[in-house]
Design brief:
single chain, about 450 residues, mainly beta, about 5% helix, globular
Length: about 450
């Protein structure tokens, strides 16, 4: 879809801190204006933050607050504007407690798209408990491209169109399928420290999609035009206009990172098994598994600990039943919505999905009050997703993204920074991504 510009906010605090503008196709002159606005905002807030006198040693209970304006102009959404705010603090003594972080975003467009996200990662005194929160409300629109990775042509059944019921075909939909919907998410997880850096706990997760509208769906024509969402939903017994996923999770986590916002060293691993029974309000019984690992490998000693290789991989798998279409594993729907730079959120979706990313980080410029004021990154990522109905297996197709970016440290004590990246991907995808705190 040429000239389509998508702003996602939120999307890891589908959106959190994912504030990204993803552009597939040709760049417009208005996008250049947007880059200038965002770049100037980055410099302004970084300089402002560094002009504030802060103690070298972090303090218990002190809140480090970093606001950031969000503004975009594009032919698809009109004018989009709002605010993102990152906060960091030590709930316990800094000597034995990790820094807690939160990120909130609120944006609205002239075409009446409202998106709110609030994500938290809180460490209580001596890291004995960790509280993870992910709240969202969207009244928005988003394209879907069917299930599985690979070229769009492989996702359509052979013949004249897509077979969504036995012997019934529709006109093939070869490109983006725009959907409008409302989305409410409430996720809260409580983890208890079992031993140093190792935690286990339970969580509750609620996802409600309502007022779902497929813009391309037209079942009254001959032949019919059936979208991927409608075909999947009706085939597996879901109401294509509304569905709910409500369940509990069992979680195990290992976290030795020195800072959750911008790590310089350590490792992170998470396993989450989520069960969504009908008796808790789910439209159908279903379960899923999330497995994630991150590592940070230093390439130099002091005074430049930010020179490193960072690695991230996760897998999201449907383990029983059938999840609703918009709740299937999808790119960009990790907790902070950071995966898949180069692509729109949800660009790849499937029953199972695996994502990996490698990023090289280097120091560029320091100033008197902040030796890590400016840095740069180069990264490459890959996504694979399955679609059993189209005989697309996991790892059969790999879709890559790559890019470069700049980093501006807004607060050296909390390591809050602004990330500004440009990425390219398959099928003409490219985009500018603006975030608060590191991508991972």
């Amino acid at each position: 879809m040429k000239g389509r510009v998508h702003l996602g906010v939120g999307n890891d605090l589908k959106d959190i801190a994912r504030k990204h503008i993803s552009i597939e196709g040709t760049m417009k002159s208005k996008s250049i204006l947007l880059i200038i606005i965002l770049f100037n905002s980055s410099i302004l807030f970084a300089q402002k933050a560094n002009n504030v006198k802060v103690k070298e040693e972090p303090q218990k209970g002190k809140v480090y607050f970093s606001p950031l304006p969000v503004i975009a102009v594009n032919p698809t959404y009109g004018v989009m504007y709002g605010l993102a705010a990152s906060t960091s603090m030590f709930v316990g003594e800094p000597s034995n407690t990790r820094m807690s972080t939160s990120l909130g975003t609120l944006t609205y467009s002239t075409k009446k798209q409202l998106m709110f996200t609030f994500k938290t990662n809180m460490y209580l005194a001596e890291d004995n408990w960790i509280l993870l929160g992910d709240w969202r409300y969207f009244n928005t629109s988003q394209p879907t491209y069917g299930l599985g990775t690979g070229p769009q042509s492989v996702k359509l059944a052979p013949g004249s169109g897509y077979e969504y019921k036995d012997g019934m075909f529709s006109e093939p939909v070869p490109d983006a399928q725009l959907m409008k919907f409302k989305y409410l998410r409430f996720h809260e997880t409580v983890l208890k420290k079992i031993q140093t850096n190792f935690y286990a706990g339970i969580g509750y997760h609620l996802d409600i999609h309502s007022d779902i509208k497929d813009n391309l769906l037209n079942p009254d024509t001959i032949p019919q035009v059936i979208t991927s969402h409608y075909a999947y939903s009706t085939h597996y017994g879901y109401n294509p206009e509304k569905y709910t996923l409500s369940g509990i999770s069992l979680n195990a986590m290992y976290d030795s990172r020195d800072n959750a916002a911008t790590p310089y060293k350590g490792m992170y691993a998470l396993i989450t098994f989520r069960y969504n029974p009908e008796f808790l309000g789910s439209s159908q019984n279903a379960s899923s598994l999330w497995v994630e690992y991150r590592d940070y490998i230093s390439l130099s000693k002091k005074p430049q600990p930010s020179h490193m290789l960072a690695f991230w991989v996760y897998g999201n798998f449907q383990t029983s039943g059938h999840l609703p279409y918009l709740d299937l594993p999808a790119l960009g729907w990790d907790q902070f919505g950071r995966s898949g730079r180069a692509y729109t959120q949800g660009r790849f979706r499937g029953e199972n999905l695996v994502y990996s990313e490698l990023e090289y980080r280097i120091h560029l410029l320091g100033i008197k009050k902040n030796p890590d004021f400016m840095g740069a990154v180069a990264f490459v990522n890959t996504t694979t997703a399955s679609n059993k109905d189209a005989n697309i297996a996991l790892f059969q197709y790999m879709n890559f993204g790559y890019g470069v970016g700049l980093r501006f440290m807004m607060n050296k004590t909390s390591r809050t920074n602004i990330t500004l990246d440009y990425a390219w991907g398959a099928y003409g995808a490219q985009g500018l991504f603006l975030n608060v705190n590191e991508t991972f």
